[in-house]
Amino acid sequence: MDLTFPLAKAGVISEALNLWLAIPIGFIFGFALFHAGFTDSRRIAWAFYFKDVGVPVVMFSAIVTGMLGLWGLSLIGVLDISEVYMLPTFLLPMAVGGLLFGVGMVLGGYCPGTAAAAVATGKIDGMIFIVGFLVGSLVFGDLFPVWGDFYNSDYMGAFRLDQWLGVDLGLAVLIVVIIAVAGTLAMRFVQNKFWPTGEVDPQRESVVRLQGKLIGVALLIAMIFAFFPTESFIDDVEETPWYIIPRADAVAIP
Amino acid sequence: MKFGTRWPPVPAGILIGVSMLLAWLVAGRGVGASGGMTRFVAWVQHGLFPVATEESAYFGRYFADGAHPLYDYVVFLLVGLLIGAFVAAWRAGEFRFEVLRGPRSGVAFRLSLAMAGGVLSGFAARLARGCTSGQGLVGGAELSVGAWVFLLCIFAGGWMVAWFVRKQWI
Hints:
Radius of gyration of chain A: 21 Å
Structural class of chain B: mainly alpha
Largest sheet of chain A: none
Shape of chain A: globular
Number of strands of chain B: 0
Strand content of chain A: under 5%
Shape of chain B: globular
Radius of gyration of chain B: 18 Å
Helix content of chain A: 55-70%
Strand content of chain B: under 5%
Number of helices of chain A: 11
Number of helices of chain B: 8
Oligomer: heterodimer
Helix content of chain B: 55-70%
């Protein structure tokens, strides 16, 4: 198959151009982070108190958009998904990493991407967070032999939700969209219950209508996906054998 | 309709999703923020201790075959992210130096917790092979089981500790 996307893998653009194109892509990412309100540590931290559930809603929207786009473009044959790098699962290290990361987020008020964006908008707490983040990364890397074995443990390859649930990929996509919508509504409900706001946003009605339409479109696309078998999305079911450090090297560490 | 500075969450999330999609379409890989920072700190350490860093079990691969650690996709992404956030804030007239914190929190208290949270997240992001964007959002869209476990654990970890640091935020 000679599909044109991903451009860099199909040889349409050079490696060097691919690198330079990362700057406009990062630009869009940073631009969106600011307008999502993610350069404000309070808004991020408030998610953990249900005072402002915008953070998980933005995350759900980003995941759903990316997911529908990625698998949809593969379905219609535009994107060669076997050339897309799929993140592998190391279950236990990721669970422990997630717990620690969550603690770090509620203490620090940022995650790395939002902290970098906050630095670019002049937030001093973001700068201090980044200094800490760099120190934490350095500690991990310099003392890697201490936790290297754990880091490489519980490897499951590129293990997807549909494989775990034993359903077709399209149905797994639909389930994720439904969870995202249900989660959004539930969290909004909790926020309005515990943190009722007196002021009424004059734009509220049009915002609700717009977001309702966007969510409707996402649900519709996901429902169409659910009619297709897994093979129409991905025919390369081999697991990803590599990530960051080749696994064979992991055991070489004394 | 005009969104103003703070967009409603769904359109804002969609734009983040679009940036993820572009990275897949152009480069065949996801976006990410923490990888660029790890490479940056490895580069700084290499300036001080070149031999030890090149022999490091974790950082060594950044220097393999004479490679420059900053000549990498994730670093270029990070540069773009910084410019994008700066331009957005500048246009909105919201670029200013300040320490964001809750009404009951002092500056020193906030900054020490920011430091502690940073160290912890830095360590955790390396352990989980990515942060909220590179592992959580990208992996979540790729339907990776590990990424969804990571996302759930972030919120579990945050809720466990939220009550103890409420003075910082609310």
